[in-house]
Specification:
It is a multi-pass membrane protein. This protein has 33 helices and two strands. By secondary structure, it is mostly helical. The protein has a two-stranded antiparallel sheet with strand order 1-2. The relative contact order is 0.07.
Length: about 950
């Protein structure tokens, strides 16, 4: 049954109150025109959710919604209290209400700044919190109505639109990214093994490039970190891939150690022709193993390559749900046993007759040990891939942070054989912590402990960069919002949309100065490009919606290319925001203001916000990325000094062993912080002259190489500490060598921080290393072979590792010294061209002098250094230094090598004369260094 339509008193049909389909756009437009904020909030919600995977989209949407709900709750609480201060705001707004709302905005800005600096993932929620707070608290000056619908509905609509687009159009999942990352890591690992096999087969000491495998390891680590918070759809849980990622990091460490040995070897060889490597004499000089053992090494590496190809197929089968490809574990394990047995035979059957053969044996043992460690890593990789137990069907995998982690513990126990009991390093730390706590309680009273606690808390707050950033963020927001709380200025403040300046300052106020300049430049480019593009689109469309939509599709594709580019992502986002803001005024809000006024208003508010943000960032607690980078590198060297000192004294003070893990973590953390600050130094303006970006990159990489040589794979048990505990010969000289390396670390750290020149003499570690070699050789000749209990005492891999460490320290000294010469600044009377004279005057002679008079004992030490420069890079002459500097080596005639190894049995110097020999080394090193510098000039 139908109802009759209503009629008017004159008998005509009354107009229907139902909304007709044709009237829907006009009603919607009128509703939107009544509150322009809604359209802007929808646009912000859409473009502040850029992500790639479905799980990441859900996580970022949840973070944004949490920020919106929290901000609405906070704003309504502030308005409720402000209404209790003054409710009637139609005629006059009291000073108390204004001050309270401004203070509320400052408190919100301080909390947002601290959380934004502390938690990187909260960036989106913090931005939404501040956007809602600034609009609501400024409009709440003369409006006592609580806020909800004006913000929550547009934000939710924008969130739903972005989620729908992410789910429908080319959806991406974290499981597929994990699969591609694992396959990429396996491919790069296989290439590393192939490069090692190729170099050993040709006998060429070639360094292996680790840039690709390092990028693959970072990509896999990033995927696993994102899996901690994202929901994914896959047959494989991310926990099962964590052991493989750990093995990949161990492989990179071993390759770094291998490259250090190759660098030391290459620095002691003469420049060889690269035109015909196979015909060049001496290229196969690196092969000091027997032919039988070389065949074993080649077969083991070939088997490892085949195993890794099987692992690639196994990973594809696991993710596809197919029959698993078998991996030949037993054959590879037999190859490892044969490799270890062959290496033991090599050590047992060789004869060391002179100094040169000892150097060759040290290099060979170090090389064989590193290759065996790499093969052990490949074996652990096979176990990590083999234990992956996929589901029969694709399932929903929840974030790792929401689970207990039992799957990861079970996977690690299957690979490394760990039990539920605590490890040795954990037991050391617990015992040391208990002893220190007991001593602390006995030595202090309750009042002293309270004072110590308060002092530590205040000191940490004083040094906290998060609090400093929160203060800067608060000052910038309050400066830009302050005009709205003066008299009736909130009227023109809202008309000019000055909140856009606050948004610009909020986005541009990065944690570092360099990134702030970079973001400010990108926002300027993006806002100008987006606003100008929208202005041209409106003018070209002549008010036709269809034409504007068609042109917007083309613009959207171009902007999407910018957003997907990591370098120009922020520029693309700002371009999209500016385009939609200006285009919305030109199409929907045409009656309020012309398009030219909207474009001009956007261009005026942007420089104001950026200028305030940059001025506050440069004047209030300035954070210099370059200074912090240098400080981080110096701090890492200091912690390495502490680590070497603890290793040196670990036998006398065993409680220091509990600090190994902490010291290694501090050193690695400082280097990681310095590397993370590298991009910010690109865009940082400085008055101190040239900034050698590549030089600092090499210094950071060299410090990482030194850490790997000292630590190895296990931070709680460094390799040098293990060697020190198992050594039975030459303990005093080994301890002296570690002490000299500690001194080198302190000198390098001080030189890097103070930007001074390195000492003109060579490192004392060079002479101490030579003493250690001679002592080992003397003890070898004085001990009969039948009295040597095991083959481990004839394995000189520890000697090779120490020689590599001395070599890398020498390279680090040279890099820091060249950094000082490269960053000479024309200030305080030092002109730019004087850096050339400073380079010449660093030698042992006067500036401009081409000849020097050798000091007493210098000729003897020069001959000894030339005699020992076959494997040790710090003991090299002028030609080798020229080769290392990259200059062409001149033909200076045949060099007479002083052979003193033949008389070493009867004429070995007394190793107890440490002070005299050290002085002679310094004099000879200074004289030789002076001649080398003169030759280079």
């Amino acid at each position: 049954m139908g109802t009759n339509p209503p009629v008017t008193p004159d008998g005509t049909q009354a107009p229907s109150t139902k909304l007709q389909p044709a009237q829907l756009p006009h009603k919607l437009l009128n509703k939107i025109r009544s509150d322009p904020t809604r359209t802007r909030q929808v646009l912000k919600a859409i473009y502040l959710f850029p992500t790639k995977t479905i799980g990441g989209q859900l996580v970022h949407s949840a973070i944004g919604l949490v920020g919106i709900f929290a901000s609405i709750a906070y704003v309504n609480l502030a308005l409720f209290i402000a209404n209790r201060i003054q409710y009637d705001v139609e005629e006059h707004v009291g000073l108390g209400r204004r001050i309270f709302l401004l203070v509320s905005l400052g408190v919100a800005a301080f909390g947002c700044g601290y959380v934004r600096s502390k938690m990187i993932r909260s960036y989106l929620g913090i931005n939404f919190f501040m956007v809602v707070s600034m609009f609501a608290l400024i409009r709440g000056i003369n409006n006592n109505v609580h806020q909800f619908a004006n913000f929550i509905y547009p934000m939710c609509i924008g969130c739903c639109v972005s989620l729908a687009v992410s789910f429908v159009i080319w959806p991406e999942d974290r499981g597929s990214k994990l699969r591609s990352s694992v396959l990429k890591a396996l491919k790069e690992s296989k290439d590393i093994i192939k490069a090692s096999r190729q170099g050993l087969r040709l006998g060429v000491p070639v360094e292996i490039s680790i840039s690709k495998i390092t990028d693959a390891e970072k990509a896999l680590g990033t995927c696993l970190d994102e899996a901690n918070y994202e929901i994914s759809i896959s047959r494989v849980e991310p926990d099962h891939l964590v052991p493989f990622h750990q093995c990949l990091a161990r492989l990179i460490t071993n390759v770094r150690v291998l490259n250090a040995a190759m660098r030391r070897y290459n620095r002691t060889m003469r420049r060889l022709s690269v035109a015909a490597p196979a015909m060049t004499p001496g290229l196969r000089e690196m092969e000091h193993n027997s032919e039988t053992f070389r065949d074993i090494i080649y077969a083991a590496l070939s088997c490892a390559i085949n195993i890794m190809e099987s692992m690639e197929k196994r990973v594809n089968d696991v993710f596809d749900g197919k029959m698993k490809t078998p991996i030949e574990h037993e054959k590879f394990q037999d190859m490892l046993v044969e490799f270890a047995h062959g290496m033991s035979n090599e050590v047992r059957n060789r004869d060391i007759e002179d100094y040169h053969e000892l150097e060759c044996a040290a290099f060979t043992d170090q090389l064989n040990t590193v290759i065996l460690d790499m093969l052990d890593v490949v074996r652990d990789m096979t176990r990590a891939i083999a234990i992956i137990d996929p589901a029969r069907r694709i399932k929903l995998v929840f974030p790792r942070k929401m689970r207990s982690g039992q799957a990861l513990k079970h996977a690690l126990s299957q690979i490394y054989g760990h039990s539920d009991e605590i490890s040795v390093s954990q037991a050391r730390s617990m015992m040391a912590a208990d002893e220190a706590y007991v001593t602390y309680l006995e030595a202090t009273t309750r009042l002293d402990r309270i004072k110590i606690w308060l002092a530590s808390q205040l000191s940490s707050m004083k040094r906290s960069r998060h609090l400093k950033y929160a203060v800067k963020f608060t000052i910038a927001m309050c400066i830009l919002a302050a005009p709205a709380y003066i008299a009736r200025w909130y009227i023109w403040f809202d008309n000019f949309r000055a909140q856009l300046a606050m948004i610009s300052a909020m986005v541009a106020l990065e944690t570092t100065r360099g990134m702030s300049f970079r973001t400010a430049g990108m926002k300027l480019i993006g806002a100008a490009t987006g606003g100008l593009t929208a202005f041209l689109v409106v003018v070209a469309s002549h008010g036709h919606i269809g034409i504007s939509m068609g042109l917007t599709v083309i613009v959207g594709i171009l902007v999407g290319c910018l957003v997907t580019n990591t370098k120009w992502q922020k520029t693309g986002t700002v371009t999209a925001l500016a385009y939609n803001l200006v285009l919305g005024v030109g199409t929907i809000f045409r009656a309020q203001a012309p398009i030219s006024a909207a474009f001009a208003r956007r261009l005026l508010t942007l420089p104001v916000g950026l200028s305030v943000a940059l001025i506050v960032h440069l004047t209030v607690f300035p954070y210099h990325s370059r200074g912090e980078l240098v400080k981080g590198l110096g701090s890492s060297l200091d912690w390495l000094h502490h680590l070497l000192f603890a290793i040196e004294c670990s036998e006398e003070h065993p409680q220091l062993q509990s600090k190994f893990d902490e010291m290694v973590g501090k050193a690695q953390g400082r280097v990681a912080l310095a590397k993370s600050l590298m991009p910010a130094t690109h865009y940082e303006f400085s008055l101190t002259g040239h900034w050698p970006y590549e030089r600092f990159e090499r210094i950071a990489d060299k410090i990482s190489d030194v850490i790997d040589l000292i630590v190895g794979e296990t931070p709680s048990d460094p390799v040098l500490a293990v060697h020190l505990q198992g050594a039975r010969t030459c303990e005093r000289l080994r301890t002296k060598l570690l002490a000299s390396l500690c001194n080198d670390l302190l000198v390098i750290s001080h030189t890097l921080s103070a930007r001074l020149h390195m000492p003109r003499h060579s490192s004392v570690s060079v002479s101490v290393l030579e003493e250690y070699q001679l002592s080992v050789l003397t003890q070898l000749f004085s001990t009969p072979l039948d009295l040597v209990p095991t083959d481990s005492l004839r394995n000189y891999c520890e000697l090779g590792r120490l020689a590599d460490l001395v070599s890398e320290m020498s390279l680090l000294r040279d890099e820091v010294d060249e950094l000082t010469l490269e960053t000479q600044c024309p200030k305080h009377g030092l002109l730019a061209h004087l850096s050339y004279a400073a380079k010449r005057s660093r030698s042992g002679s006067r500036p401009g002098s081409r000849s020097t008079t050798p000091a007493p004992g210098a000729q003897r030490w020069e001959g000894r250094l030339n005699a020992s420069n076959v494997f040790f890079p710090n003991m090299m002459g002028d030609e080798e230094m020229g080769v290392r500097r990259g200059r062409e080596e001149q033909d200076v005639g045949p060099r007479v090598r002083i052979m003193f190894e033949s008389d070493v049995r009867g004429h070995v110097r007394d190793v107890s004369r440490d002070s005299d020999d050290s002085e002679e080394t310094v004099v000879g090193g200074e004289e030789g260094r002076g001649r080398r510098e003169d030759d280079m000039v």
